[in-house]
Amino acid sequence: MQLKAAVEALILASNGITLERLVRILEKEPEEIKRALEELKKEYENEAHGVVLREVNGRYRFFTKPEYADFVSKLSGRKYKNLTDTQMEVVALLLISGPIPKSEIDAFRGKDSSAVLSSLQKMGVIRKKRKGKSYLYQLSPSFVESTMLDEILKEVSQKFSSDGGES
Predict the structure, then answer these.
(1) Considering the entire predicted model, what is its pTM?
(2) 148-155 long-range contacts, Cβ below 8 Å, gap at least 24?
(3) Of 35, 39, 15, nearest to 23 (Cα)?
(4) Is the dihedral of CA 56, 145, 154, 52 positive or negative?
(5) 80-132 pLDDT, tens per residue?
(6) Model confidence over 119-156: pLDDT tens digits?
(7) 110-114-119 Cα angle (round to 5)
């Protein structure tokens, strides 16, 4: 069995797979699987591929490279493509602040956010969960995953920590 090919097949067949699950299925040591994952990451970074292998929230998954995102969005009808400035403002606030109540969103924006929160919920960008008598709003896992926000934040954070915040 070609371990790298087996890992690749499992990633493609899943909607993201953890290292632990790969170890269980393939009955190999974690270090062997990690080596195969690193080789695949390097391989898919090549410009000959339209996808890249990333780890997001502990799951390995293939993502479309940004330069091919417009083509893929035509196929999949991505619903996140055309967020308004107001919607992006709320998304940025939730990204930075994490789960927060509507009152904090309203206070930050200086106006009622009911309509924008409702539209973002319908789009699947955010979700609300009950906390006591109120609701907390947060980015939906599917939005974070499909936009690779975790990966982007990690890269930005690494850049700022490696160059002291200078661009």
Answers:
(1) 0.55
(2) 148/54, 148/56, 148/63, 149/95, 150/56, 150/57, 151/54, 151/56, 151/63, 153/95
(3) 35
(4) positive
(5) 567 788 888 898 888 888 899 999 999 998 999 999 999 999 888 899 999 88
(6) 999 888 899 999 888 899 998 887 877 776 666 666 66
(7) 120
Residue 74 is which amino acid? K
Counted residue by residue, the chain has a size of 167
Distance separating alpha carbons of residues 107 and 25, to the nearest angstrom: 49
User: Which residue ranges form the domains of the chain, and what is each CATH number?
Assistant: 3-66 (1.10.10.10), 78-167 (1.10.10.10)
**Strand duo 59-64 + 51-56: pairing:** antiparallel
